[in-house]
Amino acid sequence: MKIFVVNAGSSSLKYQLIDMENEKVLAKGLCERIGVSGAISHKAADGRNYSAETPMPTHSEAFEAVVYALTKSEAKVIDSFDEISAIGHRIVQGGSIFKESCLIDSEVIDKIEQLSELAPLHNPANLLGVRACIKIFGEKIPQVAVFDTSFHQTMPPKAYMYPLPYEYFEKYGVRKYGAHGTSHRFVSDRLADIEGKAKKDLKIITCHLGNGCSITAIKDGACLDTSMGFTPLDGFMMGTRSGTIDPSALTYLAEKENLSPADVNRICNKESGMLGISGVSNDNRDICAAAEGGNKRAQLAIEMQRYEILKFVGSYIAAMNGVDAIAFTGGIGENDPDLRKYVCDNLTFIGVEIDDEMNKLRGKEVKISTDASRVNVYVIPTNEELAIARDTLEIISK
Ligand code: ADP
């Protein structure tokens, strides 16, 4: 059985075709510059490639290019889309409505549309992907929505409420929703598998550290708390995002610099974080290289981010009254031994001990804590596409 996984952005479309018999990726690719010009780059698992520039005024033409790449190009992997059992879509914001993944119908589309107010950059773009699939494949292929927020829907009110006047929660749904839920769920499921225990019997902290970063506390098999909030800007500093800062600093700057709400959003989302502090890049590799070369602001950015990560981990240990296992994932979590060492070496007070040799490994699933460590620490590469494909398969099999 083959599942097609779609992650549609406003001008891009990422996809993977996964064979669920062995959970292997048959092909993956990316369409870019949709609405402007159009280009596809496509890779089959055996190394064959196909790329082309072709007009993509809308996502429909992008999907037509994808169908061509998968079924006719020199890197084709199937004869026809009829071989595909279902399509799974990544949807960023499911609000309080979607507590789990679900089959897409017109009512679901309407609700995702309503939730666009909470994710104006993402949900409308995700829906472009859904609608283009309906246009091209009709009702023939079932489509499933998998929400970044669903996993966090188990947070209790004490974790998700903001201490603002209550009416803003009632009127506008202003509260913490979290993000990266599909990744936190995938990694914590895998962690429980490795431990050979039921997830409900483990207190887990998952650190998803990539361009966007979030940390989640998982207790009794469910999300108790997470660092991202009303939007994925919340939490701690990321590639270009500030994370939490005193809101008064923003109102002060807005007055001083005559900034509109849109300006403040842009600054906090695109010009802050590791980029804003280092002035070098938003990319961890560039910042680490600059820091090693003596760049003081790059060094400060690294120190600040690591310190904030440590504080989140520490606060979640307190929130759960302990921790059994910690997992690092995402581009930075999987590849930056120095960051992992910093965090773990500051958790010796609860008996964390890491194996420096194991910790040097990059991008691999590995236990980096010693056998004597009272907390098991892992690197677990995330795989959000596979998580989406698994949900999709489960839903269409019901
Ligand atoms: P996204 O949030 O866009 O999915 P990723 O999870 O791919 O991001 O993470 C991107 C980050 O991972 C970048 O900051 C990149 O520098 C960092 N990264 C990737 N590989 C390495 C590496 N070998 N060493 C250090 N950092 C790395």
Main features:
single chain, 398 residues, alpha/beta, eight-stranded mixed β-sheet, 14 strands, 20% strand, globular, binds adenosine-5'-diphosphate
**Beta-strand percentage range:** 15-25%
Individual helix count: 15
What's the shape? globular
Strand numbers in spatial order across the main sheet? 5-4-3-2-1-6-8-7
Description:
The protein is an alpha/beta fold and 398 residues long. Helix content is 39%, strand content 20%. It is built from 15 helices and 14 strands. The strands form two sheets. Strands 5-4-3-2-1-6-8-7 form an eight-stranded mixed sheet, with helices on both faces. β9 and β10 (213-219) form a beta hairpin. It binds adenosine-5'-diphosphate. Adenosine-5'-diphosphate is lined by residues 210-212, 239, 283-285, 330-332, 335-336, 362.
Topology record:
Layout lengths: L1 E7 L4 E7 L4 E9 L6 E6 L4 E5 L5 H13 L12 E8 L10 E2 L2 H9 L8 H15 L5 E5 L9 H4 L5 H7 L8 H15 L8 E6 L3 E7 L2 E5 L20 H11 L3 H10 L2 H6 L5 H9 L3 H25 L4 E5 H6 L1 H9 L10 H4 L6 E2 L8 E4 L4 H14 L1
Parallel strand pairs: 1-6, 6-8, 9-12, 12-14
Antiparallel strand pairs: 1-2, 2-3, 3-4, 4-5, 7-8, 9-10, 10-11, 13-14
Helix pairs in contact: 1-3, 10-11, 11-13
The site of adenosine-5'-diphosphate has 13 residues, from helix 10 and helix 12.
What is the structure about, briefly put?
The protein is built from 15 helices and 14 strands.
